[in-house]
Amino acid sequence: MPAGTGGRTVTAGTPFADAAAPRTGHRPWPLCRQCCGLALELGSARTRAWVAGRGMLLDVPTVTFTGAKVVHPVRHGAIVDVAGTARMLDRLLRPRLPRRTRPLVVITTPVLDGPAHRERARTAVQVLRPRTVLTVPAARAIALTADADLTRPLLVVDVGAHHTEVVLLGEGAVVDARCTALGTNDPARSPDVTGRISETVARMITSMVRQDPTGLAARALERGALLAGGGALVPDLAHRLTDTLRTPLHVAPAPHTAALRGAAKVLHAAHPHPSLRGR
Fold first, then answer.
1. CATH annotation of 148-251
2. What pTM does this model have?
C-alpha cells in the first residue's frame, strides 16, 4: 500500500493490522497526544463519527442548510453535494476536534460508488484538515466488526435507509457486488417494504451465484449471509430474508453502527504505522 502524508487518500482493501508494522514507539489512543483519529460514516439518513479515545461522538441526520432550506447532501449512498457535505462536517465536527491537530481519517464507502465517491468524500473531508484519509469498503468494515473468518468467502448484506448493497468477499477482498436504490425508508412508501427488500436481495444474490464461475458465491451462501445496516433492526426483515434465501442469516452486533465500528478498527490498526505519521 502506498504511503505518504499531506491529506492523500488510500483505499484500505486490507487493513494495516494484516501486516506486521515495525515498532515506532507510538502510544495507543487515548494516551497518544501527537495525533487525532476519526472514523466517519456518511450515510443517506445518518452521519456517524467515532473519535479515538472518546468513542461514538456523533449520530445525527445527514442534513445541512442553505439559508432556511434543508439540504440532503448524501442520497442513496452517494455524495451528491460535496460543498454541502463539507459544510455539514465543518458544523458538526470542527468544534469537537482538538485544535491545531490534523486528524487521521478513515471513511466507509459503498463498494459500487467507486473512485468517484472516494474522491468526493476526500474533497468534503478536507474541511477538517486531515493528515491522511483512508477509505474502507463498508462491507469489509462490517465483516471486521463481526470478527468474521475472512479466509472463507462471505456474503455481506448492508440494508440502509435508501440504499441496499450485497457484497461477496473472498480472502477479505471484494470479489463481486450488487446494489439497489431501495431501503427501509422506501420513497414509494410500499406497504410491504420488508418484503420488497428481501425479494430484491434474493434476486441480487441469485444473480451473483449464477454468474460466478469460481463457486465462491455458492460457498458463501451455504455459510450464511451477514446482515448489517439500520435495516437489520427492522422487525421481521432477518426472518423474511432467511425464508427467501433458505440459508442461515447472521446479524452483526449493533448492526446500524457496524460499518463505523469496523472503520474504527482500521483506524486503530493504521495509527502506529510509520508511513502514516505526520511529518
1. 3.30.420.40
2. 0.84
